[in-house]
């Protein structure tokens, strides 16, 4: 199972907020949080592309090919990664992990929380 690291998570967060971005765009956002090199961002985006967590579109130009990145659309893969991560956390930390998840859910905006509740209800009915 694929695992994502902290930097990969930060890069995905930038892509989620921007919709699509070049490596330079991502680096600019991340440099507001930490010192980071363009090659590090570019390598991380390539790794995420190979994991199928981001998509890229080639944009040929005078300096060579640049890529425009966006979040991948494979929801099944995303779900597997999240479930695997949650399994590891709950196995290691038990009640503390459940409490942290609950607290995070409690901080969601009302419309997101309502949407999530409906998803949970649908999943329970399917059982």
Short account of what is shown:
The chain has helices at residues 6-18, 23-31, 38-50, 75-93, 95-106, 110-126; strands at residues 20-21, 54-61, 64-71. It is of the alpha+beta class. A three-stranded antiparallel β-sheet has the order 1-3-2.
Question: Any overview of this molecule?
Answer:
By secondary structure, the protein is an alpha+beta fold. It folds into two domains: 6-71, Orthogonal Bundle (Arc Repressor Mutant, subunit A); 75-126. The chain contains six helices and three strands. Strands 1-3-2 form a three-stranded antiparallel β-sheet. A hairpin with a 2-residue loop joins β2 (54-61) and β3. α2 crosses α3 and α4 (75-93) crosses α5. The longest helix has 19 residues, at 75-93. The two termini are 25 Å apart.
Write the layout of secondary structure elements.
Layout: H1 6-18, E1 20-21, H2 23-31, H3 38-50, E2 54-61, E3 64-71, H4 75-93, H5 95-106, H6 110-126
Antiparallel strand pairs: 1-3, 2-3
């Amino acid at each position: 199972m694929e695992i994502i690291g902290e930097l990969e998570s930060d890069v995905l967060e930038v892509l989620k907020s921007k919709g699509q971005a070049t490596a330079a765009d991502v680096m600019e956002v991340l440099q507001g949080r930490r010192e980071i090199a363009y090659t590090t961002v570019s390598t991380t985006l390539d790794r995420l592309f190979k994991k199928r967590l981001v998509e890229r579109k080639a944009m040929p130009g005078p300096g060579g090919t640049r890529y425009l990145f966006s979040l991948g659309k494979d929801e099944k893969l995303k779900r597997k990664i999240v479930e695997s991560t949650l399994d590891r956390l709950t196995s290691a930390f038990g009640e503390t992990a459940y409490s942290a998840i609950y607290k995070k859910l409690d901080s969601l905006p009302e419309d997101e929380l309502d949407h999530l509740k409906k998803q949970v209800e649908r999943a329970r009915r399917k059982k």
